[in-house]
Structures are given as C-alpha cells and as structure tokens.
Amino acid sequence: RHGANAGTTGHFLLTHRTCAVLLKVLFHVQTYRSSPFFNVPFRPPVSRAAPQPEKLQKNNVHKKKKLVEELALDHVFGYRGFDCRNNLHYLNDGADIIFHTAAAGIVQNLSTGSQSFYLEHTDDILCLTVNQHPKYKNVVATSQIGDMTEFPGTTPTIHIWDAMSKQTISMLRCFHTKGVNYVNFSATGKLLVSVGVDPEHTITVWRWQEGAKVASRGGHLERIFVVEFRPDSDTQFVSVGVKHMKFWTLAGSALLYKKGVIGSMEDAKMQTMLSVAFGANNLTFTGAINGDVYVWKDHFLVRLVAKAHTGPVFTMYTTLRDGLIVTGGKERPTKEGGAVKLWDQEMKRCRAFQLETGQLIECVRSVCRGKGKILVGTKDGEILEVGEKNAASNLLIDCHMEGEIWGLATHPSKDIFISASNDGTARIWDLADKKLVNKVALGHPARCAAYSPDGEMVAIGMRNGEFVVLLVNSLKVWGKKRDRKSAIQDIRISPDNRFLAVGSQEHTVDFYDLTQGTTLNRIGYCKDIASFVIQMDFSADSRYIQVSTGAYKRQVHEVPLGKQITDPAAIEKITWATWTSILGDEVLGIWPRNADKADVNCACVTHAGLNIVTGDDFGLVKLFDFPCTEKFAKHKRYFGHSAHVTNIRFSHDDKYVVSTGGDDCSVFVWRCL
C-alpha cells in the first residue's frame, strides 16, 4: 500500500471503506433515531402496488425524461471548525485553499470557487496538515474518527495524499483508539507526529513514506489539543493540552520530554494551553484558555503576555521567515479589532483585524498566513481572508454552524435551494454559482422546509413545535404559528398553493389554508396517525396526502379533513406530485439486507419519475432506478458524508442532487450524469 505498491491503494481503500460501512451494520451501530418508537418487530406491509413512472408526476407531458446514470460530487458547503483547529491552509502560493468537513478533504480554487475532493476516508476527518518542505509540495495528511474497541476493523487511519491529484501516497494504520485529532510534519517533511484521542492520548512519530512507526509514548492523561514540530527540527516538538505543556525530544526510537517550568513568575500558573507557535533562538509561544500568551525559552517560562485576547487563544501561526505571529481567539469585535491579531517577534501587537462576520462574538479556530493575507477559519463554519496591510475582510465560505441539518427543499423552478438547521438558521444557496444567497436567524432549531409551488414562499418547521412562512425574496416573516409543543418533522405546501400541511412528533398532521391570510388558522388535521411523522407528499390534485410514520406505516388521508383512505383501489388511482417516502412497494428495494428500521432516513424521486436517491445512517447516498420493487435492488453508492444523511432532494430540473448531513453539519451537491 506504500511506495511501489501505491498503485493498488485505490482498490484497497474502496474495500476498506466498504468494509467499514458493513461493520457498522453487522455490529448494530446505534442509529440517530433509536427510541422506543422504533422497536417495531417487523416492517409493516406496504400499501399498494408500484405505479408506472408517469403516475408519479403531473406536468411531465412536455418534459424529456432522462434516466440518471451516475452522481458526481460537485460542491460541499461545510467547514469543520466547531471542534477542530489549524485545519485550514493555503496551497499553490495562495491560489487554492484546503480544508475538511464530514469525510471529505476539500481543495477550493479562490478565483473560480470550484472544488475538488479527497474521498477515501470512512468517517469524520478530525485533522489536516500540509507538508511545508518544498520537496513535498502539496502533500497533505488527514486523519479521522475510529473506534477499534467497539468495532474491530474500523481502526483510525492517517492518510497521506497529494492535494492536486487526490492520490493516496501512504496510509498509516494507527493503534490510537477513538481517533486521531492532530497531525504535523517535521522540518524536513520526512517525519509525521500524531496524537490520539485514546485515554493515554498517545503521541506517535512516523516515517510516513515507509508507513513505519519510529516511536510512541503516552502523552498525557487529559486531552492534548496540539502537537507540533519546531519548524527547524526533526527531533524536537511541543505538545499542549489540558493543564499540559511538554517539550519533547525524539532520541532514536525513544520519546523523552520535559515539562514546562513556570517558576516564580507573577500571575503565571500552569493552565490549559490551546495553541503553540515558535520563534527564533528556541523560543516557544503558547496560547492559554484565559487569553494570555506564554513565552518559553527552552522549557522555562520567560514572559507572560497578559490578555492577548479577551477569550481563549485557540490558534497560532508563525514562520521563521519574518518571525511574525498570528493569533486567533474568542473575542467580541470592537473598533480596535477582533479575534485575529498580528504580533512581532517580541509579542508586541502590530494589528488587530475585524472579521465582519456579523457574529456578536468571533471565535477563530484556524489561522494561516499567505502572501500579504491571513486565512481564517471560525467555529461557526466561516472561512475568510484578511489583508495584512489594509485589513480588508473577504468572506469566502459561510456555512451552517454546529447542529444537524434536517430541513431541505429545492426551488420549483430555479437553481436554488434552502437548508434549515439545528443551528437556528435557514440559508438559501445558489446551485449554479455555488454560493450562499441569503440567510436568516429563526430563533429556534429548525427541522424541515418546503417551497410553495410558485416559489414565492417557504415554510419552515421548528423543533419547538412552531412553524413559520417566509417570503423567499426577502426572508421576511409572512406568518407563523405554534399549535404543537413537539418538533415539526415535515412540512409541505400543496400543488395548488392553498394548503399547508404540518406533520409533527405528536402523531399529527395539521392543515392550514394559506388563502385565508397570515392568521394561519388550523382548518383540519389527520386522525389515527400511527406514530410521529417522517415524510409527507401531496397528490397532484392537492386532495390527498401520504404520510410515512415512525411505526413504519404509510397512510393516505384526505385534505383538509384528514379522513384516512384505506381502500387500495382508491389509493391506486392517486397521482402523487412528489415522492419522498421511504415506505411502500414502490421503494421496497431501497432497504439493504439486515437493515434496521431506522437505517434509511430519506428518499426522493426525480421529476421524471425514473430514479430515486436515498440517504442512510452510514453516510451513504444511493442511486436506484424507480420504481424500486425488488428486494435489495441494484444501486450505486456514493461516499462523502460521515454520519447519517438526514435529507435529500433533486433540483427542479433533475440536474443536481442535494443531500444534508447530521453530525457532519454539511450540505453536499451532486451533479447528475
């Protein structure tokens, strides 16, 4: 798998990745919907026979129907800043940037905005670093979550890969349990140091080209945040963490360390250290949780810079070229600056930068210097460039913050879509230009979203039982209501633009007449819903709604009175405007062998009615033909998400698929081929 055998790596990685998913199935990974509602002893019988594709949709008479053969990842809206650090870097003299989210390593060109992807990881990437030695230009190391104690065979791995070709150069099999949370190359680029999230927080030094371990030792009993080589050394590095500061020396196959010595300096004490940088003459700088910066000579504290930031100093960056130090922390922006600061070698502040993110408190997790610019990554999923001289701030990426993304809807006639998240925001994205168009704070975590058929309004359901109807052009509130106390699971507007259906966790579907104005008085509701609502679809004539429930039954009801239709012959005559149900004879084949009831989370049929895509608990997006009536149907699978895929939709013209992630807090855009 290394060196001469690098050519076989791709095949091996595919096998490894597929095995990792299969192991999750075999070992019954706890799924996100595990609850008493899902202890169903068997999958209930489906409601009716499969329709012909043309029965699915109205308005298909003049459309040229095309089968989707493949999906290709086109763009990812996401950056993992909420629990990672120093994971954002320049490439190619500042022409490109590299970062990660979910299980994807992402290279983005700054002039075009186009992205390319490294997709050989099997789970969440936790760390990323770039080799700074000219001999190893664009060589990247990434590593991931893994738990070989709970799932043997899913050991965390460190991948060394080429950022331009996306080819794996080497793969290091770790004995770190739980995962690897930091990696860093040595001065010559030949060695790599890693630290695990195992109980001992083991530190390991590797000769990565050979895949060989050089030395390994327990680092600290509490968490280590950063471990970095001195930029002029292959034998000396520093680790910092929870009340932890150690200076390490690699001596042959042994790792030796000296603890940082505080001495008798006034106001100084050993506290949690979050970041590290290096200066000339064997100086080391560490950022503390209280905002101070500690300056060390060898392993002795020689100076304390009090309140370098008002909050924790999460990240630091320096080069020995000019000795300037960039720090990033948690800070409320003021006229004097914000959470990114530039210092000279004596730790005298040169400049403080306002990021202009609109956040009341800025929290920076990654900084990197380029040619006259500073690349900044924040806890809230933003990536910015700041000019060192003019302090101009340019927002490159503005993604969802920490929180699962459940709400997703594509516009009925334009290349835009909306996502709504537990972070309490809804965001409208442009599929063609691959950028954020608008966003709004909702005040509560959001669970679902739906456009009106005319594209002028969007309805969003919240976790607290409230729903809101927004005007698309302005994202201003048209109306809102709260008739339920539990989460709104799905929300839909009928094809005739009249009825709003609101499905909740309280085993109900409520109907509202939008033509009666903004008061949003409930005019009816569905009775006898077996469990909480999962998905809903209106019929093409707006007279019926099908409801998929947590009891894994699909029910059909009249709109707006809510009377259940049980006659199979009557149901057979219904033409559905959309199909997002994971239940029914029509979609029997989307369920894999040995599937738990909660494994498949979401589905969507093309407007042409010829394909269906699904998202599941194992981070897979799958493409099937539709109808999909044979058990364990043939399909194509696509990796990138790291945990459960929460929602999935085709664009209005079936040229794109959009999928949302749960734990990875990311939105993936796939091109249909």
From TrEMBL:
Residues 405-672 form the EML-like second beta-propeller domain. GO terms for molecular function: microtubule binding. The keyword Cytoplasm does not apply. Keywords: Repeat, WD repeat. Transmembrane segments: none annotated. It comes from the Eukaryota. WD repeats lie at residues 405-439, 481-522, 638-673. This is Echinoderm microtubule-associated protein-like 6. It comes from Pipra filicauda (Wire-tailed manakin). The gene is LOC113998968.
